[in-house]
Amino acid sequence: MAAVSSPRYLLAFFLLNLYLKVLDADPNLTFSFKNFGKDSNFESQFALYGDAEVASNGMSVQMAGSGVSTAGRVSCKKPMNLVEGNSRNVVSFSNYFVFSMSKENGDGLAFVMLPSGFPLNVFDGGPMGMLVERKMKFLAVEFDTFKDDKYGDVNGNHIGLDVESPVSVKVSNVSSVNLVLNSGEKLQAWIDYEASSKRFEVRLNKFGDNRPVDPLLSYPIDLSQMWNEEDVTVGLSSSSGNSSQKSNIYSWSFKSRTVPQWMHSEPMDPEDVVENAEELKVPKKSDCALRILAALIFGTVCGALGAFFVLFLWTIFGNRRPVVPEEFTVQSKEFEYKKFNVSVDKTIEDGKN
Predict the structure, then answer these.
(1) What is the pLDDT of residues 175-227, one digit of tens each?
(2) In angstroms, how far is the first alpha carbon of the chain from the final one?
(3) pLDDT above 60: residue 342
(4) Contacts 24+ apart (CB under 8 A), 12-19
(5) In this structure, are residues 280 and 78 in contact, taking their beta carbons and an 8 Å threshold?
(6) What one-character DSSP code corresponds to residue 323?
(7) What whole-number distance in Å separates Cα of residue 165 and Cα of residue 327?
(8) Are 221 and 117 in contact (CB under 8 A)?
(9) Which of 116, 140, 93, 133 has the alpha carbon at shortest distance from 227?
(10) Hey, which bits of 226-344 come out as E strands?
(11) H-only helix segments in 150-286
(12) Separation CA 207–CA 186 (nearest Å)
């Protein structure tokens, strides 16, 4: 039999190979905790440093202790990578947590992304528990309740994006949306990084209210260039500064997703996609992307099989004219056209019959 060479078959093989690569990609980071007690396996998957501790029978994590100049940090033991191997696929992620801060003017709270070599158990009095004496690649979203002129803070109620420096590259006044970070009330934060458009967004609202449509802070940044293929640790960090401010975390969800560079992804809400997850696990790839790939693969494979079958028949029968039963042969006929007169019995005049 002659060798089969079909563009559709090659395309099907290419898509199938791509699909398998997506499935075999390095595990991304996904977790969701609404309870931090022993039954949730939180402490087996996260590390607590400094004055951070699980409080209220597992209902919260208290980031800073009861006293002046305390600091704490909680970090995930499993690192993540923002670039997937040789394929250079980039990673989008969404982070969501509920928190509160007492009314003192402390250094506040920060969501942090740190290199794997960061000394997590070391504190040097830096704002929000960060180290200020070491030069390293880090990213932090600060929820700051202290105006520090040394770092150019706009007020004592702002969020800022810090990139490799405690001086924020972008700052937003929380008072502009009628919120107070250290009101003692529960607030919820959404932090999204969309890798395709290289967009970093932060949203903030009262606990129980809907996710705002417009971000409070938005900034263009390419995290894949910042860290390349280095492992990154995600966590939360806090410092009371020269006050006795307490910061508490009541729930925390995180979801990352590897997306080929030719595909577009949108920021996600982890509350929607990891509602009941309480363990680190390999997340399922985007249902939408997989369904599209599955449909393409199925259709292409079917097309390839059809082409293969046609080639098979052509190989066997060559150029022989197919035999068609007489009753199914097309008969040539002339068609006659007749004119039809169409009449209407009654006409409608002035809107009446």
Answers:
(1) 999 999 999 999 999 999 999 899 999 999 999 999 999 999 999 999 988 88
(2) 77
(3) no
(4) 12/297, 12/300, 12/301, 12/303, 12/304, 15/293, 15/296, 15/297, 15/300, 16/297, 16/301, 18/260, 18/293, 19/290, 19/293, 19/294, 19/297
(5) yes
(6) P
(7) 85
(8) no
(9) 116
(10) 231-239, 247-259
(11) 223-227, 270-273
(12) 5
CA–CA distance, 168 with 156 (Å, rounded to integer)? 14
Q: What is the pLDDT of residues 98-143, one digit of tens each?
A: 999 999 988 899 999 998 888 888 877 777 777 665 677 889 999 9
What's the pLDDT tens digit per position in 12-67?
444 544 444 433 334 478 999 998 988 788 988 999 999 999 999 999 999 987 77
Token pair belonging to 95: 């982070």
- Tell me the helices (H) and strands (E) count for the chain, helix number first: 5, 17
Q: Which amino acid is at 124?
A: D
Q: How far apart are CA 352 and CA 308, in angstroms?
A: 67
